[in-house]
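Fold this sequence, please.
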Amino acid sequence: MDLLSFSCPECAEYQSDNLDSLRIHCQKRHRLSSIDLYKKLFLNGKEPQCECGCGEVPRFHSLQVGYMKFIRGHSTRVHNNWGHNEAAKAKSLKKRQDEGLWSRNPWNRGKTKDNDERVANIGKKIKEKHGERYSILMRGNRLSGALPSLTGSSHPNWRGGTSALAPLCRSRIYREWAYPKLQSAGFKCTQCSETRELEVHHDGERFSEILQKGIETLGEPGDDFDRKTCFVDWVLWYHTENDVSGRVLCSPCHEAVHRDRPE
């Protein structure tokens, strides 16, 4: 990709020498995914096919890298002639069978943890190694009192029961509150000048505090669609009416600010 600048394939008004900035513009303004953007920019809207000739579409990696050349494992169809040599495969199979290294009838065929003790023990060991060991450790710490069990309002991440409403409100306030701040910051993190994974941080009044004010003003919307819509409209109105302060940060800087910010 030797292009010096990229133009938005939808409106042709936005231009940038940074693919991530163009990706953000297309996602927010035109609801265009990274895959669709890549196809429009570099493939004339078409999907590539695996270079082994199978006709399937390989995995999309990223906007900078694009699609992989092969579906996983299919490169051997091109770069490994042994895979197509039937005589070589038959000879290898016979050698492994004669030496007992491999069999078409493995010991565990048809056996499960319900009908074979050996299979059950293997599955138990794997589960303990990758998951249950940590679970047992945490459970023991809670029962012994070394790790307190915090739920509801006593949990450090408690925000007044507004977590279910936050995603609805964030998607609505983006265009009229967050996007203008991104523009004024030049689509760069105000702390480290990063141009990727940008977010707008409520550096004055917290977002959770605004949601809590909404609940105090309008009441808990519950699962009622109309009340939820009214609540989201109120949050948008509050941001624009009070010119809520916000600072553009990349995701790592945003996490660091929240981690260091006193409760």
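Residues 6-67 form one domain. The beta strands are 6-7, 15-16, 60-62, 66-67, 198-201, 247-250.
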